[in-house]
Specification:
The complex is a heterodimer of chains A (145) and B (114).
Chain A lengths: L1 H28 L15 E8 L19 E9 L5 E4 L11 E4 L4 H34 L3
Antiparallel strand pairs in A: 1-2, 3-4
Helix pairs in contact in A: 1-2
Chain B lengths: L3 H25 L9 E2 L2 H9 L7 E2 L14 H33 L8
Antiparallel strand pairs in B: 1-2
Helix pairs in contact in B: 1-2, 1-3
Classes of the chains: A alpha+beta (145), B mainly alpha (114).
């Protein structure tokens, strides 16, 4: 049944947007982090999306004409922003170098907030699609009554 | 008697479900770089579906391409999502009517309450 595999497509969209939101929130939370396990200030991260095939538990039995196609979405990689850190003059800071500068992450909160809004809207669009598909499945089931 | 109209309605619903899958895929890939909106020509493909041919998926032309090569328009997909949903609603209601007629015939003209 094609409609059930369509639910997986919307679910993959929701999962991808959620992963994107998680990374963006991590950026915002670490906007002032000067110390990380790898050493140096926190580096801004971003996700890259790619199309991927989704599978439904029954796809092998009830295959539709479109089931084989890559129609879902997945996070292919998380890339690190390569922009150099921002140097602020704070001589009293424990992470200051010998000239008194502290390396801060190059995180622009406005940029991440706008991206976060995009992720949120994208998530909502996938939820709406899932709702519509669920209605269609429910109406098919109601034919049995 | 269920074969004629109900068979066509079934094809109609199957095609709507396939199209809804494409719409869901377009929405899921609204932020995927390089992704192009995919759709089917519903009228043509419905005629083909009645002959038993699988739907032919094409890339939609004439949409604004964003900087990352993606051309998904969420407004267009929202409209199609609603349209497919409503068309499916019509089809299920018509099919229900067909089934009800058949039940009426089985029950011998309506002495039963259902």
């Amino acid at each position: 049944m094609s409609l059930f595999s369509t639910l997986s497509v919307s679910a993959s969209g929701m999962a991808a947007q959620r992963a994107r939101a998680e990374v963006l929130v991590e950026n915002l939370a670490n906007a002032d982090t000067t110390r990380t396990a790898e050493g140096g200030p926190y580096q801004r991260k971003d996700v890259v999306f790619e199309t991927s095939s989704t599978s439904s538990p029954f796809s092998s039995v009830f295959q539709s004409a479109l089931d084989g196609e890559a129609s879902g979405v997945a996070v292919s990689q998380v890339v690190t922003d390569s922009r150099p850190p921002e140097r602020r003059y704070m001589p009293g800071h424990p992470d200051a170098d010998k000239d008194g500068y502290v390396a801060y992450p190059r995180v622009n909160p406005a940029e991440d907030m706008v991206d976060l809004l995009g992720a949120s809207r994208g998530y909502e669009a996938n939820v709406a699609a899932m709702g519509a598909i669920k209605d269609m499945i429910q109406r098919s089931i109601d034919l049995l009554k | 008697m269920l074969d004629g109209v109900a068979g066509n309605l079934e094809q109609y619903m199957t095609l709507l479900a396939d199209r809804q899958k494409l719409v869901a895929a377009n929405i899921a890939n609204a932020d995927t770089p390089g992704y192009k909106t995919r759709d089917i020509d519903f009228q043509t493909e419905f005629r083909n579906a009645l002959d038993g041919a699988p739907p032919n998926v094409t890339e939609v032309q004439g949409l604004t391409v964003k900087n990352d090569g993606n051309n998904v328009s969420l407004d267009r997909e929202a409209r199609l999502l609603a349209e497919n949903d409503l068309r499916f609603n019509i089809a299920t209601n018509l099919l229900r009517g067909q089934i009800r007629t058949l039940k009426l015939a089985i029950d011998g003209g309506g002495s039963s309450s259902s």
